[in-house]
């Protein structure tokens, strides 16, 4: 089973990414992460996601395989790098970075 951790709990995560991942055999949305604990908890409960976190570093310790970055654009690059440095595959909303230097 491929374990996915979603970073960001906004519209794109709730209405696009999570519903699509749930339809794929062999994939589990294992965790959701949001800076605001009540938001992370709410999305976790709404979609039956077993784990929720308020920091990516804590979520990475759970042994996920893929990080899906669904946050505001200015955070995509740093979150993607952190996840890759932890050995995870990364999916990210666009843009991956805010300037040429980042990407």
Could you characterize what this model shows?
This protein has helices at residues 11-22, 37-47, 56-60, 76-85; strands at 2-7, 27-33, 51-53, 66-69, 89-92. With 103 residues, the protein is α/β, with parallel strands linked by helices. The protein has one domain: Rossmann fold. Strands 3-2-1-4-5 form a five-stranded parallel sheet, sandwiched between helices. The radius of gyration is 13 Å and the shape is globular. The model has no long low-confidence stretch (mean pLDDT 97).
Helix and strand topology:
Elements: E1 2-7, H1 11-22, E2 27-33, H2 37-47, E3 51-53, H3 56-60, E4 66-69, H4 76-85, E5 89-92
Parallel strand pairs: 1-2, 1-4, 2-3, 4-5
How many individual domains? 1
Strand content: 15-25%
What is the overall pLDDT average?
A: 97
CATH top level label: Alpha Beta
Helix content: 25-40%
Cα distance, first to last residue?
30 Å
Q: Total helix count? A: 4
In this structure, how is the largest beta sheet organized? 5 strands, parallel
Low-confidence segments: none
CATH homologous superfamily identity:
NAD(P)-binding Rossmann-like Domain
